[in-house]
Amino acid sequence: MRGITITYKYSGPEEDWRNAMESFISAIDNDSEIAGKFTYQVSVADDGETRIHWGRWDSQDTLKALQSRDYFSAFAAKVKQFAGGQPQTTGADIHFKTQGW
Asked: Of the CATH numbers 3.30.70.870, 3.40.50.150, 3.30.70.100, 3.30.565.10, which one belongs to the domain with range 2-93?
């Protein structure tokens, strides 16, 4: 399993940010080729500005399928806008985890 962590600071309108996050997650959940194979979580840190995203996927094919979607391109552009530039990203191989998501 592969994963990514994305972090950035955002202090703009919460409704705009929340709508973009909900739209992306809904698109994943409704994409029959990707749902269940790619998971995405978004958090707001205790400081109220730091945003943390975690994505996990089962294979390179799943990631390629996601990245080919129009909703992915639109979301990536939104995140860059919210971050005020390129957000910090860290990819990783997941070696150990608890059961469930």
From this structure: 3.30.70.100
